[in-house]
Backbone:
């Protein structure tokens, strides 16, 4: 079951497209996420470095302010008086205490300050007042002051009563030992809050270390602090990573150049990548969702588009005897290809057997009706019995003519042309049938078909719409451009031969204006109202005759003589006569490839500014038409033309108007060339061949039908009784009655032997 499932074309197509989609999107998504991670990490690192630089700058500013504050305090006059108070004046001592208190109250970072006088062994403590050295609460600071160091204006760690502070020592003379010092103790917790903010998250660690790795500011973390100092000594840039047993830190550094301290701004790595990982997960989720949606669309599209092919393949395997039809190993497309080949073969075989009894009767009955004008008693009975035309109130006759017929003939061989015209007939009958009209199509040979349509006398507008639909469907399905015309409503017993000739003539009106519409009888009447009389109009007859015999020089000379008649006419009359002259000329050679690109005659006349220019164009057309008729054909082309002539003759033998000139006109060749070509290939003249074929048809009908002799002669295209009996006697040495009596009893064998 699964194996059969995967053999379905739309399933394989869906899996193939989905595989291509996955193989193209997954690498792209991976590349996109990698690039995003890289870019995001660069941004995060840049932001972290920016934060570290800001902290360093902020620390430099605060420490610088504290130094300036210390200098201001040291330079206060009351404090200076106390340093140099040799008389031990209590007022000076009091003023120094007040000044110290004032300075302490204005800066909350300073937790305590000392004014140390080594000379008098006194200290002004901001919390204890003026005390001698022996009572001073911070002996460690005294020891540091007594040992001179070059640490002017630098901060250092200092511990008092277990509390860590930053100390700033300001001596009177920085380059040599002094007796007077100012000491400021800075509250580390206050300074850290000012620098780092109120809270620092557990995923962050911000510390300031001195050049020896000692902690100046920040929350102590012995394991991380030691690793920071070790890594910092070996680093080559401003950032590095520190790995602990269960943590990974990304560290950015910034230098405090004056103090030779370093700010370490550390972020736990997972906090940096948390948002990136979240984006990756979302990207993967949305990608999978997109893949699911696109795969569903692929499946729906494949199933909708290719499932009918699978059904068609299965139907072809069931209906047609294809080789290997039981194996199922070939794909559906191959089955369809083989099926189409088999169908084409069947169509060719069907074409060979199309002349069965019923189709032959139908074609002959309708053809006799169209060509003779009336169907006759026997044919009328058939039409009444086999079609719905006789039961309708009115009869319409429509002609559908194939445009650019010579180009059509070059594109398709004879059998293909027959099939295409058969398809046009089917399209016409189906469209008209869907519109509730009775219709019968008939291929008249050559470039057109006839549609006999039964309906009501009020259906003219509806028929125009349906004929337009037939033209559009023929173009859309078969890619064949056609021109259509339709008659007025007639009674069923009207002579439709005249109507047929008239409607076929209507399809030629496209040469005047190039319009693609359904032509009506009223269009021809309007056109003929302006047609000039023979004595006034240009006469193209002689020009057409010389073109047909392939004499271009004579045709051009006659054309020039004709053009002289209108050189003195007014412009409007000249244009009118040129219109009708050109129309007659182009109509006579409407199947020629030379004039297929000619559109509207009115537009053509408007394109030329002078009569001489239009005459030059007309002469080129005349030369081209004559040259096309005079072009010798290659041997293979000759045989093909003769075969097409034979097929045309076979299809139209029932027409008593069939002549060599008519055949030549249908193929756009001269009558002399047709006679010579047919005689050369078939070793019998064309007229003789037509007569022989008519006699053979009479012989077959005498044996197979109960029709009278004259009805058979009429159906086989004989124009007169005398001509019929003379021709039959010539080829059989029997009269028709004798032939029927002799071979009608012995059946098909006798007829075959005589044929």
Residues:
């Amino acid at each position: 079951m699964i194996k059969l499932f995967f053999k379905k074309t739309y399933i394989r197509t869906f899996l193939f497209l989905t595989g291509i989609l996955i193989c193209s999107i997954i690498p792209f998504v991976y590349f996109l996420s990698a690039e995003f991670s890289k870019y995001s990490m660069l941004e995060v690192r840049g932001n972290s470095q920016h934060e570290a630089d800001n902290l360093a700058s902020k620390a430099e500013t605060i420490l610088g302010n504290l130094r300036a504050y210390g200098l201001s305090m040291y330079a206060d006059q009351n404090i200076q008086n106390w340093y140099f108070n040799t008389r031990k004046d209590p007022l000076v001592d009091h003023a120094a205490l007040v000044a110290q208190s004032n300075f302490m109250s204005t800066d909350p970072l300073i937790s305590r300050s000392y004014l140390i006088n080594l000379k008098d062994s006194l200290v002004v403590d901001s919390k204890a007042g003026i005390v001698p050295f022996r009572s001073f609460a911070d002996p460690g600071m005294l020891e540091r002051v007594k040992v001179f160091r070059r640490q002017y204006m630098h901060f250092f760690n200092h511990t008092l009563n277990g509390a860590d502070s930053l100390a700033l020592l300001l001596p009177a003379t920085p380059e040599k030992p002094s007796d007077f010092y100012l000491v400021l103790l800075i509250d580390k917790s206050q300074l850290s809050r000012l620098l780092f903010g109120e809270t620092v998250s557990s995923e962050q660690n911000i510390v300031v270390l001195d050049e020896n790795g000692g902690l100046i500011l920040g929350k102590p973390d012995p394991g991380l602090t030691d690793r920071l100092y070790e890594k910092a000594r070996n680093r080559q840039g401003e950032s590095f990573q520190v790995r602990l047993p269960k943590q990974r830190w990304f560290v950015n550094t910034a230098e405090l150049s004056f103090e030779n301290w370093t700010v370490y701004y550390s972020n736990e790595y997972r906090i940096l990548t948390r948002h990136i990982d979240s984006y990756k997960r979302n990207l993967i989720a949305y990608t999978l969702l997109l893949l699911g949606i696109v795969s569903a669309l692929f499946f729906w599209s494949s199933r909708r588009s290719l499932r009918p092919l699978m059904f068609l393949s299965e139907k072809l395997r069931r209906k047609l005897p294809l080789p290997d039809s039981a194996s199922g190993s070939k794909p559906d497309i191959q089955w369809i290809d083989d099926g189409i080949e088999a169908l084409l073969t069947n169509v060719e075989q069907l074409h060979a057997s199309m002349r069965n009894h019923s189709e032959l009767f139908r074609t002959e009955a309708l053809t006799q009706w169209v060509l003779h004008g009336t169907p006759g008693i026997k044919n009328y009975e058939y039409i009444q019995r086999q079609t719905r035309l006789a039961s309708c109130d009115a009869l319409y006759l429509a002609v559908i003519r194939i445009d650019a017929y010579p180009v059509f003939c070059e594109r398709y061989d004879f059998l293909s042309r027959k099939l295409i015209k058969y398809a046009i007939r089917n399209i016409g009958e189906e469209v008209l049938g869907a519109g509730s009209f009775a219709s019968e199509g008939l291929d008249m040979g050559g470039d057109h078909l006839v549609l006999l349509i039964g309906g009501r006398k009020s259906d003219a507008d509806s028929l125009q719409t349906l004929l337009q639909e037939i033209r559009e469907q023929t173009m859309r399905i078969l890619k064949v451009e056609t021109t259509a015309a339709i008659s007025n409503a007639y009674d069923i017993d009207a002579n439709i031969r005249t109507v047929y000739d008239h409607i076929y003539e209507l399809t030629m009106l496209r040469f005047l204006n190039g319009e693609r519409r359904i032509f009506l009888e009223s269009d021809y009447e309007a056109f003929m109202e302006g047609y000039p009389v023979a004595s006034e109009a240009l006469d193209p007859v002689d020009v057409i005759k010389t073109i047909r015999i392939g004499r271009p020089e004579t045709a051009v000379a006659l054309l020039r003589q004709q053009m002289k008649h209108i050189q003195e006419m007014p412009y409007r009359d000249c244009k009118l006569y040129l219109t009708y002259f050109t129309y007659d000329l182009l109509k006579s050679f409407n199947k020629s490839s030379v004039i297929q690109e000619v559109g509207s005659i009115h537009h053509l006349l408007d394109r030329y500014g002078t009569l001489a220019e239009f005459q030059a164009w007309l002469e080129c057309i005349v030369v081209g038409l004559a040259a096309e008729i005079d072009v010798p054909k290659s041997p293979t082309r000759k045989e093909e033309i003769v075969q097409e002539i034979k097929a045309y003759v076979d299809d139209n033998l029932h027409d008593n108007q069939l002549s060599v000139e008519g055949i030549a006109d249908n193929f756009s060749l001269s009558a002399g060339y047709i006679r010579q070509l047919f005689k050369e290939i078939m070793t019998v003249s064309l007229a003789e061949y037509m007569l022989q074929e008519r006699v053979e048809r009479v012989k077959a009908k005498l044996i197979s039908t109960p029709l009278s002799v004259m009805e058979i002669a009429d159906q086989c295209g004989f124009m007169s009784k005398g001509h019929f009996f003379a021709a039959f006697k010539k080829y059989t040495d029997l009269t028709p009655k004798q032939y029927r009596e002799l071979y009608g009893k012995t059946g098909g064998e006798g007829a075959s032997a005589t044929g």
Q: What stands out?
A: The two ends are 62 Å apart (CA to CA). The longest strand covers residues 247-256. Residues 9-74 form the longest helix (66 residues).
